[in-house]
Amino acid sequence: MLAVRGAQLFTHEVGDGDEVVVMLHGGPGASHDYLRPGLDAVAAAGRRRLFYYDQRGSGRSPLDAGVAPGSWQDHVADLDAVRAHLGGAPLWLVGYSWGALLAMLYASVHPAEVNRLALIAPAPAAGRERAEAKERLVALSNRPSVKALRERLDMSDRRNRFAIAVAGYFVEPERALGLTPFVVKQSAEEAVWRSLGPDYDLRPTLRTLGIRSFVAHGEEDPIPIATARATADALGADFVAIPRCGHVPYVEAPDALLPPLLRFLD
Description:
seven-stranded mixed β-sheet; alpha/beta; two-stranded antiparallel sheet; 266 residues
């Protein structure tokens, strides 16, 4: 456990390399578990040490008594506390979904404290783009293929219920069975989006950062690929579009995601 202002962060490390990469999970309000085991491959057979943590108020990271769920500023402060805990050097960040947005927020506030920035299926960098992503997810969750999978599965099994709940994120709904189950803490999620507000737009700031960056996004992600491409353009990032892939490329298309990601980190 890592003590930060108002919370305790549960941490977990994978690998034993000298180079440390901080892995930022999505949500907001989820936990690090569902990035594993897929993204453990970033450790690359001992070349890197991966530092996972559950963000405040979610997973196994409790808030202190009387502390309200965290704003985006609180999450940025927590990540800076992680940097200090790891020795204070500029961070190598791999962020997934909301974790990618958190990485962008951190880089916007602390640009000198980021060495490299890798964003996987990033949440929209502008608030105006979130509504379309929500609509697309609803439509994809109600496809005939998802309904057919529900009919085939034993819905008394908790893992099957979870897979159906997230099937809209996958091109092939059956692949949802390969995602490690997780729970989203709604209060933590709502606090982040409320603090960001509907009109946030990080891209003008991203254009000024000059941080070496990488963006990968599935072509059939509920979050439109055009939003990720715009984020990559703002960062001047290497961009990888992954065909026949939804929102979870490390489960649905690891052979397309991992080689370019590892080359970037090298």
